[in-house]
Amino acid sequence: MIVGIDLGTTNSLIGYWRNGEATLVPNALGHFLTPSCVSMSDDGQILVGLAARERLASHPARTAAAFKRHMGTDRLHFLGEKGFRPEELSALVLRSLKSDAETVLGESVQEAVITVPAYFSDAQRKATKAAGELAGLKVEFLLTEPTAAALAYGLTGAPDSDEKTLLVVDLGGGTFDVSVLHCFEGVTEVRATAGDSWLGGEDFVDAIEAAFMAGPGRGAAIPAVSSGAPIHGVLRRQAELAKRALSDADEATLDLPYQDKVISWTLSRDTFERISEPLLVRLRAPIERALRDARMRPEALSQIVFAGGATRMPMFRRLIARLFQRLPVQHINPDEVVGRGAAVRAGMRMRDADLRESVLTEVSPFTLGIETSDDDAGGRRIYGLFSPIIERNTVIPASRSKVFSTIEDNQGVISVRVFQGEARFTKDNILLGACKVRVPPAPAGKESIDVRFSYDTSGLLEVEATVLSTKHRASLVIEGNAGVLSPAEIQKRLEALAKLKVHPREQAENTAMIARAERLYEERLGHVRDQVGKWLTEFLNRIEEQDPNAIERARAVLAERLDRIDDKFFL
Amino acid sequence: MWQELGIEPTVDPAAIRRAYAARLKAIDADLDPGAFRTLRGAFESAIARAARPLPHPMPRVSAEGDAKPEKEPRTEPLLISAIPHHERTLEEAESESARVREQVRRDTAAQKFEAAASHLVSASARGLLPLSDEEEVAAEVMTGVMADPKLPPERFREIAKQLHWDGPVRWDSTPHDTLRQQVRERLEAEVWYAEIVEQAARHNPDFNLRDRIWGNPWHAEKTAAMMLLGKAPIWRARFYKRWLQPMVIQYDRHQPWLKDRIDPAHVDWLRNATRPSRPAQKKTSNRRLVWLIIFIVVILRLVASALLGQ
Fold this sequence. Notes:
The complex is a heterodimer.
Chain A: E1 2-7, E2 11-18, E3 21-24, E4 34-35, E5 37-40, E6 45-48, H1 50-58, E7 63-65, E8 77-79, E9 82-84, H2 86-105, E10 111-116, H3 122-134, E11 138-144, H4 145-152, E12 164-171, E13 176-184, E14 187-196, H5 201-214, H6 216-219, H7 231-245, E15 251-258, E16 261-268, H8 269-275, H9 277-293, E17 303-307, H10 314-324, H11 337-349, E18 359-363, E19 368-375, E20 381-390, E21 395-396, E22 398-405, E23 413-420, E24 430-438, E25 448-455, E26 461-467, E27 473-477, H12 487-499, E28 501-502, H13 508-523, H14 526-545, H15 548-565
Parallel strand pairs in A: 1-10, 6-28, 10-11, 12-17, 14-18
Antiparallel strand pairs in A: 1-2, 2-3, 2-4, 5-6, 5-7, 8-9, 12-13, 13-14, 15-16, 18-21, 19-20, 19-23, 22-25, 23-24, 25-26, 26-27
Helix pairs in contact in A: 1-13, 2-3, 4-11, 5-7, 13-14, 13-15, 14-15
Chain B: H1 2-5, H2 13-26, H3 33-51, H4 59-64, H5 71-74, H6 77-81, H7 90-109, H8 113-125, H9 131-146, H10 153-162, H11 177-201, H12 209-214, H13 217-228, H14 241-258, H15 264-274, H16 277-309
């Protein structure tokens, strides 16, 4: 069984394809969405999902969230004293999803299709693949999120339907992607992709937080965000709630208990839109570029599709609706659409009979090339020029080659430095890797090498350089960069992760409930706080007694009580 | 190419796509990338050939480009339910976008380009203008900006950047490609001119006659730049030909934007001072040879006559 996984910045989902439809798998709590949060309990157990997210406010130092934003870097997130790489934290989330799927399917799950933002770089994709391996999954395919959304809508052009051109706008928790897709005769072809890997719903929360800190926060002398004070866990949650509330209401109130009093701040929708304006401006460039690369005018699009929870924001929808003078398609829950699409792709991968007639082709999101030097009109040599080999938005799998020659007399070595990016000079692009090719000594320009780039369907790159005169070959495996784990390291970390005690799945509901009560205890003051404390003790006592039926009853009672004081529950 | 696709040569993109789709389903791109690449190559060249007589590779674009697109989505009930109740109505939105346009136009007419640009950017950030209209309005602002040659380069660059008009123009995506190209050229010209001014102003204390004659590149660039700006005597052009020639070529490319900053008469001077040098040299050497022969003949004559005379 191949499963489809949406490994998101805020939430993750797992689904599979069976009997002609995509089905999502609920987690131990019965939710489709598992928050991408990992926390370590005081006794060293790993908590994943909602329980971990509740602990974000109460135990910020032992909890990690939004680590997808640091995929492909060496940055460590600390759960207590122990540092984890983003891949490892993602692997813990993937593992929890995997065990959910195994429970539902009743069989072991070994292979998966995982989604990545279309604009993820080579390092970020490799890190995602490594995360899958760390979770004990063979990553069959990395699917780009906007394409997944189109698949979920079934907008893949059934053989008898008209051809269509879609624009998929995916504003997730941490990333923004735009893809132009062309569907005809059962073929879904990605025409162009553009995006911003550092723009998402979390940035809008940041904006609210910053506005709060500049306003009432300064008056109350709350320590700066960078200080990592626990109060910011609470503030962030309040900001998130306000952002969600503003999708329906005209204003929202942030209540922050601080030093025995509650700081209340009302944020109107207009203010929110004003403080978010710099973010909205950043949304435009990728949209324009995707259209330009696809050689499309906005009028020629047949449909606009939304994916990602942040597309619920009215200002975003208004922006898109006005830009294209039409309303987007949005009847699947935008949080789930990518997960469903991943399940469809998993079905295609299994060559399911229902999907045999659909084919999907993707493009390379970046231009890939090598560093060269050239002489300018004045006879001076310019170094560090970027020479593209695979242009962005080339349909993959693709293989392109170019011939380069030596620039100095008796040059013994040609250094092939591989870059990704769009800038003219390599210093502004991202270095992916380098290798050296030996060439026989000869006058400048006499010896040449053929550099071939092969880009596979998962967006992973192979480079091969051949000396034309000697047929000597050098191939480059792009590894060993900052942020990319080597196979040996993956093995080592796999063993380390296996040693971690993961919180048992059967207790997930209890743990989530305790974490929620603890969070409420921290958030509230006075009378309510005492009450929550009392309820929590009662519940903990019930758990000690180890009678499953009694625990279940007590949990239902506690849930109802907590719901009464905490109406702002969200997934 | 046609064999690969399994069809007769055609210019109908739909037929090509149909053939491609049929073949594509028979192969697995993940397992056999080679086969996919061959097929893809055939498809792309077939489509490119089919598209050649048309300005757009996709016939839909040219066919429906003029149609009003708003009507289509409004007929879909699903989409209507997607509008939250607090959204602006269409009339409101239309009057809002008209207001924005009016404001931008007024600012442009009053040559308050920055105000116009920031107004436009903030309006489009809030979604008050459709993408296609926005290009129109931005083009109006840029037309105004381009019509003002006295606008300081920093301001010009800033406005172009604000409107995202400083990026490269690719394909035939907008009706304002020519204008965009002109803006790009002007931006390049500004960068080049700034470089020239910077070179001319470069402090360069230690140079001597040898540098001058053998061409220390730093000094040469500086002097060449100064000559172009009319700040160094023209006779030096003979030493700095090598540096001047590319500069003059660059000037020619950017001439429309630099006319009021670099005196064209001056450039003509430089061109005359640099260009004819090589043929002239050849001529002098020829002439020298002729003179030499005449001289020898005369000497021989003299010697002969002297000998004969005696």
